[in-house]
Design brief:
By secondary structure, the chain is α/β, with parallel strands linked by helices. Helix content is 44%, strand content 22%. The termini are far apart.
Amino acid sequence: MHSDELPQGEEKSIAVENMFDQIAPRYDLVNRLMTFRMDVGWRRRTVKALQLPTGSVVLDLACGTGDFCNDLLRYGLDPIGIDFSNGMLSAAKTDAPLIRADALCLPIPSSSVDGVTCGFALRNFTNLDEFFAEISRVLKPGGRIGLLDVAEPSNPLLRLGHSFYFGKVVPKIGALLSDRNAYKYLPKSVQYLPESYELLSGLQAVGFRDVNRVLLSGGITQLFLGSLSE
């Protein structure tokens, strides 16, 4: 992905899949380094916030190499990982069952799972309304969601520092350890992410209630939580 222009539609879908295939072998290492291992805490906070009983079935969408699945297993839940990148699934290190599929068209029966998680992938989907409708479809009434993604701190000083780090330092770490173009793209891909109020409205529109947004680590990460109406 060499262009500074962000791809759209089918072009975006192909570009994202190719990018994740390319960076899969060192994806976990780069994540740990560039987040100073904070990503571990963010995922565990999400799993706890689901408040699901032991044995609940949870879909982890855009599961990548299985980090979220492993945290779900650690807390006694029963995860199924889904990703459309063969490279990511091939590099996965988890005992959870994994399925290659598109999160906008899940091979999962309606009203069949207790929870859905997704880590830092909302901006990679080609249509968030379709994604929200699909997770609403597969969840049982009362089912829970925990969706993580990046955010911008409201504090001006923190925002400036975060912008510099995310825009300048992260691509250098990625170039050193993985793929330069992919880690130039990832900071830019935040432009795909709608405003938080639009995301909350989109979730409410497909039947989620008690939807709220929690800011983590000074506002550099956001967590969307909610329950499907019964």
